[in-house]
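For reproducibility, we list the full input for the iron/sulfur cluster complex.
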Amino acid sequence: MLTALLVMVALALFLGLMLGYSALKFKVEGDPLVDRIDAILPQTQCGQCGFPGCKPYATAIAKGEADINQCPPGGDAGVHALADLLGVEYKPLNAEHGLPKPKSVAVIDENTCIGCTLCIQACPVDAILGAAKHMHTIIASECTGCELCLAPCPVDCISMQPIAETPDNWKWRYPVFAIKPEAPQIQKPQTA
Amino acid sequence: MSAITQLSRLFKFNGGVHPPENKLQSCALPIRRLPLPAKLVLPLRQHVGNLPKLRVAVGERVLKGQLLAEAEGTISAAVHAPTSGIIASIGEALIPHPSGLPDMCITLEPDGADEWLPHAPLDWRHADKQQLTESLRSSGIVGLGGAAFPSHIKLRADGTSGIDTLVINGAECEPYITCDDMLMRERAEEVVRGIEIAYYLLGAKQCLIGIEDNKPEAAAAMRAACDKSEYPLQVIVVPTIYPSGDARRLIHVLTGREIPSFKRSTDMGIQCFNVGTVQAIYRYFQFGEPTLSRIVTVTGNVAQAGNFDVLLGTPVTALLDAAGGALPDTNDYLMGGPMMGFSLPSAEVPVTKATNCIIAGAPKLFPEPEPAMPCIRCARCADACPVNLQPQELYWFAKSSNLEKARDYKLFDCIECGCCSYVCPSHIPLVQYYRFAKSEIISQDRAKQAADVARERNEFRLMRIEREKQERAQKHAQKAAGAKTEGSAAADGKTLEDAKKAAIEAAVARAQVQKAAVEPKNVSDLPPAVQSEIAEIDARRSDAALEVEKMQLKKTIDTNSVADGKGNEAVSQASPEPTAEK
Ligand code: SF4
Ligand code: SF4
Ligand code: SF4
Ligand code: SF4
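The corresponding predicted structure, in tokenized form, follows.
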């Protein structure tokens, strides 16, 4: 009886130590759930979700403080992916936060730009290049299309331009087939 | 070697189909040439890879063979003028692409002179291999079998590459297409010379030329030409089965080696070229001619089908006219074969390096597909798939947009050969689903990459803002501390003051020296009254100058200490804060 007890205690101690050790040794930095949610979010950093960026929104979702349907750039596919990840029910996008738009990039009208640097300070991904009192321009490949630079511009010289479809980024469409009414002479005998 | 022993050495891949060949119509006549068209439209994108860089301007006169656009980056190909003429415009025009979207094109108006740029042969046997492959970069040669992959990359591996087997693809398995067949029949000599060059450049040890057994004339012509070669070139007749012309399938048939999906044929020491491509390589080395034309089969619903040696950029309409014109019930133009080709957006599009065949379609040739029915899981598609995929599973995943699963089931190994759709009893257009799923996955991957970049940039920006905030706070704290300890004469505070003072004095001295140097000459003999007035003004001026100098110095010292704190700023933009602060 006593030996059995001792064995069990020793085993419990040993396993406990192992667990404690591995908890320290294999400690995961950061919150993996936040990162996994953040990986699904489109990183437009537009703030339409009501948070100052994608990471804060991801953190809020992980804490259960925000719903999964607040990110318009992520679209329906994004909500589906979040629902899958979190094991919750899918719900349609919340229109309060805006509607999905075709992907665009900002373009500065370089003749109108007065070089005030206000848009530089607004851009969440440093996609605007310029210096005080010099013309600014946008690095199109870095622009996420968040529209945050539009409002601060005092001369309204920034506009959003949808990314055009080219043979390079063109996608094959989902196969659809025109439904043609069947020839009436075939249908008649069936209905009759 | 007799044909029988050869055949017995061959291997067979899974599946494959035997669609009606329809090749006889277009090989009745020899290869013909077209009259010079009124204009040539040359798309910049005629190959796989980066867009080439423009080298000409509108209005310029160019000679035949002149470089119009230069290869840009590793995977890219040059574009040359197919004849002499004037560059009429550079801009968007319709290209032969399944999207039907326009793309960048150079429009050339031929002047009829067909005047060559001076060009010379390259002595390939006595030149450095490295240099030769380098020079191929400007040849504009791409795979002419239809894939249009730049050839200089495939030949780049010289000697050290470990390529031991060169496979030459003359299988041409797609129905209707006969351009390679006719090329081998009529220009076998040139093809074999091209094979020799590729053989030499790659340092290969054996060369297998695969030709389907429905092309006996081509095989005979090639054999005759190979017999004269000093290299061990073997013509091997392979059984006719679609898609034996796919590079990996042909390699399997000829060598028995299957290339794993994650590897390339070069990893296994095998390189594969189309017969048209090696002929282009020959013409480049023998005459210095870049790719200016190609052989195109025009067939289907036309009066007189045949093969044409066509200048790149020639409109398809000109080609159809040369073939006697499309018959009145033509309702569609296909580029490529009926299995893998696509409908052209218009017959006005130009011939490009990838155009191997134009088929005028009509309801009697290609009847409307029967309506698709649900999949009955008969697995006939899997039996027919030459890549050993599970097309019915892929179809299911693609249809439900379950893209991750489709990728797991090796969607990207699918060569879109269409065997599965061909045999499907439910008439499901399987390949269309695969194309949709593939391009969807590719675009999602691109979006993901862009998102990763955006995340990184956003994180960097937040970090920078945080750092700047901290630095500012630190500076304020230092200033506050400095103000407190000023009265008690802190050592460092004092030295700072001293340094400032010294700098100001030095500046004053400099200013005086400068002033002495620019003593005005017109004030030497003046009445005393004026002299004294001048002296007064000078005194006032130097006082003011000193003031200004002092203020400026203070400013520079201040901003210097700010800049020191931000010494290693690695931001690509001017930080607006310093100006905003003052
Ligand atoms: S709404 Fe904008 S900021 Fe919020 S998660 Fe979506 S992309 Fe990111
Ligand atoms: S340039 Fe404008 S739209 Fe583009 S990422 Fe920056 S702030 Fe957003
Ligand atoms: S051949 Fe067609 S019906 Fe049969 S399993 Fe494949 S997809 Fe389904
Ligand atoms: S199209 Fe793809 S899945 Fe269908 S048979 Fe060809 S390789 Fe296999």
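Chain A has six helices and four strands. Chain A touches chain B at residues 38, 41-45, 53-55, 117, 120-121, 124-132, 142, 144, 165-175, 177 (CB under 8 Å). Both points were considered when choosing residues for closer inspection.
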